[in-house]
């Protein structure tokens, strides 16, 4: 499912206009993005949590040339699936 399919599903499920559903989805995504960018975690019970993982700098290699390069430290978002979602997806086998 992509963003436009999510907007369409919300519009149909709630009988909202496509414009209103789009506004809701964009507000949620923008708020989540801003929260993660500020270094805060997001927890949605039964679904999962988004946390920021911090990675130290390290020396890597350019696979083409073999040259040693310094990789700077970075912070990346990471999704940790919740127990209920994990069980529901696993039961679909």
TrEMBL record:
One of its GO terms (molecular function) is structural constituent of chromatin. InterPro entries: Hist_DNA-bd, IHF-like_DNA-bd_dom_sf. It comes from the Bacteria. Keywords: DNA-binding. One of its GO terms (cellular component) is cytosol. Belongs to the bacterial histone-like protein family. This is Integration host factor subunit beta. It comes from Candidatus Desulfobia pelagia. The lineage of its organism: Bacteria, Pseudomonadati, Thermodesulfobacteriota, Desulfobulbia, Desulfobulbales.
């Amino acid at each position: 499912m992509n963003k436009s399919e999510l907007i369409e599903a919300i519009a149909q499920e709630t009988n909202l206009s496509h414009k209103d559903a789009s506004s809701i989805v964009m507000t949620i995504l923008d708020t989540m993005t801003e929260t993660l960018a500020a270094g805060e975690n997001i927890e949605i019970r039964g679904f999962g949590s988004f946390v920021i993982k911090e990675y130290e700098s390290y020396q890597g290699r350019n696979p083409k040339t073999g040259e040693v390069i310094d990789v700077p430290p970075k912070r990346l978002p990471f999704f940790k699936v919740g127990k209920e979602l994990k069980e529901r997806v696993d039961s679909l086998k």
